Amino acid sequence: MREEPPEKQPDFPGFDHLRGLPDSATPYNFFVSLPEVTGHYRLLKMNGLAVSDGYMELKSQRLSVHMEHINDLPLIEMNFSLEGNIRQKLGFVQDDVMYTKGYHNIMYNQGEWERNQFLHCGIHNTFTINIHAERFLQLFYGHSFPMDELVEKVVKGTPFLVQRPGITFTPQMGAIIQSFWNTPLTGGLKSLFMETKMMELLLLQWELFLQPTPCKAQYDLEKLELAKEILLKDMQHPPSLTQLARLCGLNEFKLKKGFKEVYHNTVFGYFASVRLEQARQLVLHTGKTLSEIAYETGFSHPQHFQRAFKQQFGMAPGQLRK
């Protein structure tokens, strides 16, 4: 297993390239910088697990970006949308799969095609864990009663998609996602850490998927999803609670109660966490000044931004760039 940092690559890799990369204790990093697109892709491969984080910022409304490929390897995927809007078409699923902030799924689609279309300009960021089917069966076959159905489908080579679009992943799960990149462990201990965190994250996903539907009516879920889209459409000029309720067709009580149940936060608590995460991505992946980032994400003054950022992430935004 390689211990030295792999060489940074200048452009996003193709799937054939990624397949051929050996295991490494440090992430591979790929970058793209074009007038209308900037992006960063990092990949960590160890002992049958591949952990990746793909970030892309589209700077033009006119730009249409999509990626299409055949999934020819026997991999179980755990997908998490950290930011953005992506429409995914899968060969074995009739309806489109919509990746919005907080969405997550478990998928097995060997031999099937998929097409991902990036909707709207702005930031799109996804986190994925790929588990080789052989390793998945070693870990879960025979002693994972709640997931026996998935195990049987993997054994038979039957594709599946497990999702609950109305239930977003929790802050606890978000912290686990970040831990893959922040651990100081190396070598075999890092491999063990990755596998342990993958299983913890998978079980937390499964626990969410087994929850009863938070709202009695699918009609209300659709209106809550619409409310979320309206809320995040213009970060600099968000609607008031009264305006948002009217625009999505719910009264304020249902809007507040439903938002808390589905997104595990208040309406404007959710808005604040999203814009701070968007700001964090801009700090990490762009050369914009902190003042530019503050105004772009809807803060009236850079000092308000820096105070809220430190409260959320435990450090000032300038420290993140050091």
UniProtKB/TrEMBL annotation:
Domain HTH araC/xylS-type residue range list: 225-322
Protein name listed in UniProt: Helix-turn-helix transcriptional regulator
Organism: Chitinophaga agrisoli
A single MF term (Gene Ontology): sequence-specific DNA binding
UniProt keywords, alphabetically: DNA-binding, Transcription, Transcription regulation
Matching PANTHER family: REGULATORY PROTEIN PCHR (PTHR47893:SF1)
